[in-house]
Amino acid sequence: MQRKIIPDVTQKSVVISLAPNDTATMAAKIMKEKNIAAILVTGKSGKLDGIVTERDLTRRVMAQGLNPDETTLKKIMTKDPDTLAPADSAGEALELMRTRSFRHLPIVENGLPVAMVSIRDLYSVMKSDLEHEIRETEAFVFGDRYSA
Amino acid sequence: MQRKIIPDVTQKSVVISLAPNDTATMAAKIMKEKNIAAILVTGKSGKLDGIVTERDLTRRVMAQGLNPDETTLKKIMTKDPDTLAPADSAGEALELMRTRSFRHLPIVENGLPVAMVSIRDLYSVMKSDLEHEIRETEAFVFGDRYSA
Questions:
Q1: Closest by alpha carbon to B103, among B91, B85, B116, B114?
Q2: What is the residue-averaged pLDDT of chain A?
């Protein structure tokens, strides 16, 4: 079965985002408050400008000795990040994230972010699919669903 | 097949660690330099005292408005973290990390850390095992290895 990002892995939701001129400290506070590891950066039109992760805050702010109260997200974000479409396949998305070392990707529809998906979400779906596939194959082998 | 953390998932290695009185800034710099997301904190005897992750630097330092040059790891580390033994099963370790939301766990042997394992490492091993299992079952069903 071909799983799609929406609705099989996640749903459209209110996407948590900050503006390009917001600060690293604000991003850290919201990540903590919302228990998330990445936050989208959107412009005035709501269009996706970039993404900032815990890793960016660690490596591009703290490791550089920058003051997070004075460091804006537009300086540290990954601009124009890779995105997924709602109808993309979960399996291909997982492989993309695994090979390119992304843990989070925004889902974009008609130019606007409608959800964020994590490699953890995709892993859960893929694991249950693989286990289902094994059970189905075993059921066929051992004949509890088909006559011998 | 029952995979073990060592040697099936990772090997013993020089474990990167800092001391309890080292600072958050030092941890961020080393994480960036070594391209790692978590660092062990060890005492004088080399014994494991704690672990500090990018998430801890984000939530326990930056989100709190603390100065990372003056914040010691002993204040922000997770003390006495869960650990794995070299002979622990990879599958159980993956489930433990998934359900408890750990992305990294130290491997401890005779009281001393000998490696660090990430959920990504474990996922790779488990994925290849599951795929292997499916192929084996299919080979049995479709008879390219056993006579009908």
A1: B116
A2: 88
Alpha-carbon span A38 to A28, nearest angstrom: 9
* Residue ranges with strand state E in chain A: 17-18, 38-42, 48-53, 78-79, 104-109, 112-118
Predicted TM-score (pTM) of the model is 0.82
Closest CA to B90 of B121, B57, B49: B121
pLDDT of residue A27: 98
pLDDT band of residue B105 (cuts 50, 70, 90) is: very high
Chain B residues with CB-CB distance to A under 8 A? Answer: 24-25, 28-29, 31-32, 37, 54-55, 57-59, 61-63, 65, 68-69, 98, 120, 123-124, 126-127, 130-131, 133-134, 137-138, 140-141
Alpha-carbon span A22 to A69, nearest angstrom? 9
| Domains of chain B, earliest start first | 16-81 (3.10.580.10), 82-143 (3.10.580.10)
Tell me the C-alpha distance between A142 and A131, whole Å. 16
A32: left (phi over 0), alpha (psi -120 to 50) or beta: alpha
Residue from B43, B70, B74, B69 nearest B56 by CA? B74
